[in-house]
TrEMBL record, chain A:
Pfam families: ETF. Residues 22-219 form the Electron transfer flavoprotein alpha/beta-subunit N-terminal domain. This is Electron transfer flavoprotein subunit beta/FixA family protein. It comes from Pelotalea chapellei. The keyword Electron transport applies. It comes from the Bacteria. The keyword ATP-binding does not apply. Keywords: Electron transport, Transport.
UniProtKB/TrEMBL annotation, chain B:
Residues 271-300, 335-366 form the 4Fe-4S ferredoxin-type domain. Gene3D superfamilies: Alpha-helical ferredoxin, Transmembrane di-heme cytochromes, Chain C. Keywords: 4Fe-4S, Iron, Iron-sulfur, Membrane, Metal-binding, Oxidoreductase, Transmembrane, Transmembrane helix. Pfam families: CCG, Fer4_8. PROSITE patterns: 4FE4S_FER_1, 4FE4S_FER_2. InterPro entries: 4Fe4S_Fe-S-bd (IPR017896), 4Fe4S_Fe_S_CS (IPR017900), Cys_rich_dom (IPR004017), HdrC_iron-sulfur_subunit (IPR051460), Helical_ferredxn (IPR009051), NarG-like_sf (IPR036197). This is 4Fe-4S dicluster domain-containing protein. The chain crosses the membrane at residues 6-24, 66-91, 103-127, 139-159, 209-226.
């Protein structure tokens, strides 16, 4: 069985600013990181690899410099890393992205090994749509298990998986046949730290690059042309400086009491 | 009946064979260690050896050191007596008395005196081990056996000598009183005993004393290379091969595929590391100085060195023949004192190395073992995962956005460093840039620099973490990357002189970055402020300073690791008009705050908290101000004072103390 883990290189959003004129992200000088939710998907795929001795392939769609993200995956122990990179993939929304990723997964399914699981982070921290994972499941006809915080059971002989889904205020235990697509939340695991010998091996390893000559997708279904979503505006919410209450240095207790009073008046304290 | 010389010759031969075999067995194990050059500056090395091995400078630093000094030097003198004994045992015609009289008299006097001094020292050591041992586990059978053997040697010597004297006395028919008086001038103790011996049993006393002496000596020879008393053979070379520079850093690693990273097997240590393990006498001074040991953590620096020896003896012979180790060195399956918890408990404060009379280097070995955990196994306390990722991704321990590095200067007029127009780079450091409390120190520093007219600038958002914590924590791969980036940045920006307010940045730039080809003039703010006062650039009005009593806490990486002890004290004296009060443990004996070696970022489990122990020690001086010179110490003292709920005592960095005095 092959596990495919989808990862994305994202700008470190705590450091991102928005250009007020063009309404686009200012990316200059902003370091890229692996989408934090994806690191948990990656970790889970590696744990399953350790347990079931299956293979793991990491795929990522992005510009050529996204190779760094895949090298991190190699350093952590994935068997194969593929970068899906082509100018015609650029400008993709979640639909077009899921088309490219699905095509890559299908290709791995036929050429490498039968895909049993696809793991994704629950969403990326730059787009925050949470649509790409479910999009892949729909296009490939895989079972769709989102917001997974624990894999309860994976039975490879029966080809079934049972997971816990972390929903608001409750957990849901669901079971599904394989192949399945899981999107995962942070509570699933604690990602491992790369070992130096693995990092050195990854630095020398080749990340395979698949462009559209390899995937042969209809250009109307990928990139900007295949993207029905149109972003009309990106903006930072305006921050309003609130009222300054009391003097915390001179009278900390009185100021705290003042704050509590205000919050209770606005019904913002659960009593 | 076989003659005594023959029996003795056979026994001596067997003993020397056992001795030689023991020495060969142990010393040949050094060859499995890695290469390391400790042969540079031979002249200086000889001087160091004379100072520390023969003059016993460090041994004498503690009260009982004098006892060891006496044993050491009397042993050297008694080498003459024992050589005579052995030669005489083989060839009865060889005797000291055949020496010229002018030489013989002072020699036997010295031997007699040395013997009684040695016996006295052994008795003191015996009593001390029973009544108040240096550490509880020091009451080992081994220690008592060796003391008993030395004691037996001395007692046997006296009876042997005395019976010989008495025999001569009775044979010569001289007046006992005048004979003993004359002999007493040559060998006072032996002559005293000679007068007490019964004439009739002189022959049997002599025989018994001779054999007792022979057996004690031969047993000692056999035992020596197979016990901790091997230090008699290794301590002197260990002082010769000591690191001539302070062991405040660790060597670089080469990141090439196929290399091993860190140490998890004895043969990954260098030969000098292995020699260290044979040089330990288990005096326990390291553990009595170690903040982790003293607060009941699993770390015991003596235990680490001892376990390296134990493991070397177990695995060494096999490793020498290319076999795999039979017993792990570190971790769960490893030796008792090299468990994970012990290795992570070290604050790298260097107190153990400062205390060791024979210059054993405990700290670098611990860091090497951490390197194995982090780099080869990626196994470490879970709180370090965030630290490593924050350091790698955002170049600061908290993972705060690098763009916030200059927030402290928002309302100040701070200029960027420009090598053409600014003299000093003021390297603010992570704590000075991000930590709310330590930002006050940064602001105080900038005010003082401006007041004194110093030409300074900052790197601003380009500044990166120096990497101290990750190096001490064994993440050399990450440190290597951070150091190379910083070195490139400093070179590109033409940085030559750096002011730092953190001893960790200080030591890293000064000592660690040299390995990366960067020679900087690094000045800690304590030294800079001292110089500015001396040069009259900071003017103080002493009569109005009101700090109450100030107690100063030495930072390990400023003091012990870099020998800066006076500058901060002079700054405090200048600012307050009085020298600071000293804690019981100060200067090179100072006790760590608990935050070094990356412990700042880790949970402290078990035992007493190190910072609480130190805060309590500081409070014994009844200070109104505890003065520190390090942002980590600042945090540890602030936290500690809150924990002991000590009202009215404040913690100040010395820059703040100075600023209050100058700018008020």
């Amino acid at each position: 069985m092959l596990i495919v883990v989808c990862i994305k290189q994202v700008p470190d959003t705590t450091q991102v600013q928005i250009d007020p004129v063009t309404n686009t992200l200012v990316r200059e000088g902003i370091p890229f990181i692996v989408n934090p939710y994806d690191t948990h998907a990656l970790e889970e795929s590696l744990r399953l690899k350790d347990r079931f001795r299956c293979k793991v392939a990491a795929i990522s769609m992005g510009p050529p410099n996204a190779e760094a993200t895949l090298k991190k995956a190699l350093a952590l122990g994935v068997d194969k890393a593929i970068l899906l990179s082509d100018r015609v993939f650029g400008g993709a929304d979640t639909l077009a992205t899921s088309n490219v990723l699905s095509a890559a997964i299908s290709k791995l399914n036929t050429e490498m090994d039968e895909v049993g699981l696809v793991l994704c982070g629950k969403q990326t921290i730059d787009g925050d749509t949470a649509q790409v994972g479910p999009g892949i499941a729909s296009r490939l006809g895989y079972q769709q298990l989102t917001l997974v915080d624990r894999i309860e059971n994976l039975d490879l002989s029966q080809k079934r998986i049972r997971v816990s889904r972390k929903l608001e205020g409750r957990h849901e235990i669901v079971e599904a046949p394989l192949p399945a697509m899981l999107t995962v939340v942070r509570e699933l695991n604690r990602p491992r730290y790369p070992k130096v010998p693995m990092r050195l091996a990854a630095a020398d390893a080749q990340v395979e690059v698949w462009n559209n000559q390899v995937l042969k997708l209809d250009e109307q279904s990928i990139g900007l042309k295949g993207s029905p979503t149109w972003v009309s505006k990106i903006f930072s919410p305006e921050r309003v400086v609130g009222e300054i209450l009391g003097d915390g240095y001179a009278d900390p207790e009185g100021t705290a009491a003042l704050l509590i009073e205000k919050l209770m008046a606005k019904d913002m304290l659960p009593i | 009946m076989t003659s005594r010389p023959t029996i003795f010759a056979v026994l001596l031969f067997i003993s020397l064979a056992i001795f030689a075999w023991g020495c060969w067995r142990r010393f040949s194990l050094l060859t499995i260690g890695q290469r390391e050059d400790r042969f540079d500056n031979p002249g200086q090395r000889v001087l160091e050896m004379l100072k520390y091995a023969f003059a016993q400078k460090r041994v004498l630093a503690k009260p009982f050191g004098i006892n060891h000094f006496v044993i050491f030097w009397t042993f050297l003198i008694l080498l003459v007596a024992n050589s005579e004994f052995i030669l005489n045992g083989l060839f009865p015609s060889i005797k000291l008395i055949k020496l010229p009289f002018e030489l013989y008299v002072p020699l036997v006097f010295m031997i007699d005196m040395a013997s009684i001094l040695a016996l006295g020292a052994v008795v003191i050591a015996y009593v001390r081990r029973i009544v108040a041992p240096p550490f509880p586990e020091a009451r080992t059978a081994e220690a008592f056996v060796i003391l008993t053997l030395i004691g037996m040697l001395m007692v046997a010597y006296f009876f042997l000598n005395a019976s010989e004297l008495a025999t001569i006395m009775y044979r010569s028919n001289s007046d006992p009183a005048s004979f003993l008086a004359t002999a007493g001038k040559m060998m006072p103790v032996s002559a005293l005993i000679a007068g007490l011996l019964p004439q009739a049993q002189l022959g049997s006393i002599h025989g018994a004393a001779w054999w007792l002496h022979a057996l004690a000596l031969l047993t000692f020879i056999c035992y020596l290379p197979n016990s901790k008393h091997m230090h008699i053979l290794t301590a002197i070379p260990n002082c010769f091969f000591r690191r001539l520079e302070k062991p405040n850093t660790v060597p670089r690693e080469e990141f090439k595929a196929g290399n091993t990273f860190g140490v998890d097997r004895v043969d990954h240590f260098t030969w000098k590391d292995l020699l260290d393990s044979f040089s330990c006498t288990e005096c326990g001074r390291c553990q009595n100085a170690c903040p982790a040991s003293l607060t009941k953590k699993p770390l015991n620096p003596r235990g680490i060195i001892h376990d390296i020896k134990v493991n070397l003896l177990k695995n060494g012979p096999g490793l020498k023949n290319g076999q795999q180790p039979v017993k792990a060195l570190i971790g769960e399956e490893g030796e008792e004192h090299c468990c994970d918890e012990a290795i992570w408990a070290c604050t790298t404060c260097g107190a153990c190395m400062e205390a060791c009379p024979v210059f054993i280097e405990q700290m670098p070995k611990i860091i090497q073992m951490r390197r194995h955990f982090v780099e080869t196994e990626a196994r470490f306390p879970e709180e370090l995962l965030n630290l490593f990722e924050n350091m790698e991704g955002r170049s600061n321990p908290w993972g705060i956005a690098p763009s916030e590095r200059t927030k402290w200067s928002a309302t100040l007029d701070v200029k960027p460093f420009d090598s053409d127009t600014t003299e000093y780079l003021f390297y603010v450091g992570c704590a000075g840039s991000f930590d709310a409390r330590n930002k006050h120190v940064t602001v105080a520093m900038t005010q003082l620099l401006d007041k004194a007219g110093v030409s300074w600038g900052i790197l601003g958002k380009e500044e990166k973490c120096c990497g101290d914590s990750v190096r001490r924590l064994g993440n050399e791969y990450l440190f290597d990357k951070m150091a190379r980036e910083n070195v490139a940045l400093f070179k590109e920006r033409g940085v030559k002189k750096v002011i730092v307010q953190c001893p960790h940045c200080f030591t890293t730039f000064k000592n660690d970055y040299r390995q990366f080809g960067l020679e900087l003039e690094v000045i800690h703010h304590s030294e800079l402020l001292r110089n500015l006062v001396q040069d009259g650039r900071l003017v103080l009005d002493k009569t109005t300073a009101e700090f109450g009593s100030v107690v100063f806490h030495d930072s390990c990486y400023l003091g012990r690791h870099n020998d800066v002890y006076d500058a901060p004290r002079e700054v405090i004296a200048a600012a307050t008009g009085a020298a600071p009060a000293e804690m019981e443990r100060n200067r090179n004996n100072a006790f760590c705050c608990g935050a070094g070696g990356g412990r700042m970022w880790m949970e402290e489990h078990g035992g007493e908290r190190i910072n609480l122990a130190r805060v309590k020690e500081a409070l014994e001086q009844k200070p109104e101000t505890i003065c520190v010179s390090c942002p980590y110490c600042m945090t540890m003292f602030e936290d500690g004072l809150k924990d002991v709920k000590s009202e009215g005592v404040r913690v100040r960095d010395l820059a703040e103390v100075m600023a209050e005095a100058v700018l008020r």
